[in-house]
Amino acid sequence: MVYDHSIHYTRHTLRQYLPMSGKAMLNRILDILRMEVNFSGKSFADVGCSTAYITAVIVDEFKPDIAVGMDIHQPNLELAKQRYPHIQFQTINLNEDSKPETQYDVLICTETLEHVGELTTAIDNLIKLKKSQGFLLILVPDEIGWLGFLRVLWRVIRYGYNGLNCFQEIPKQKFLFLKYMWSLLTGERVSKYRNERSHWCTHFGFDYRDIDDYLQVKNVDFYAYNKFGNRYYIVRET
């Protein structure tokens, strides 16, 4: 089954004018690339490209010499190949340790790491895909602390608790919802609620501080900041 993520960036609703919308997020990605990267003569890869809408927007604007979209979901890649024949596509499983044959000058990985089962392996794979003097942009959701609390609360108000299937992936325990919300309010790591899985459909239990910690352990020089519900990581020399 294909879920067409392009609707998050192209649908015409009032929500798209909000600073937390998919369209606003895409514009921020483009602004970062304009400021940070010269694409002339460069290779570019979008890791976790889904149906490659963002990939195509970047390729059409910056025109890298080589452009590759990577994803684990084959139906998404098949649709992407039909829509964007000028872009190369490859299957990748970030959960599996790999030794890439090709490295890239510019990499992005947006809205992907919150869904992988092996976070540290996925980060290692991204670093190995980047040339030593290359540029890597990672984007993940900021859903911890008060902001995370408000986001979950909004989902409960909008869908009702019975419609909140987000917790179905988290191992069951007594008073799970209340415990999770308390963890958000007190700043505890919500990643403790996740168990070992190959992937996660929802964001629940994802804590970007685990990325911060691992990059520091690996002595990776990075710059990170939060803006309108997302955390942006910029990695250069590795």
Automatic annotation (TrEMBL):
UniProt-listed GO biological process terms: methylation
Keywords: Methyltransferase, Transferase
GO terms of molecular function: methyltransferase activity
InterPro entries: SAM-dependent_MTases_sf
Domain of life: Bacteria
PANTHER family per UniProt: TRANS-ACONITATE 2-METHYLTRANSFERASE (PTHR43861:SF1), TRANS-ACONITATE 2-METHYLTRANSFERASE-RELATED (PTHR43861)
The protein's name in its UniProt record: Class I SAM-dependent methyltransferase
Organism taxonomic ancestry: Bacteria, Bacillati, Cyanobacteriota, Cyanophyceae, Oscillatoriophycideae
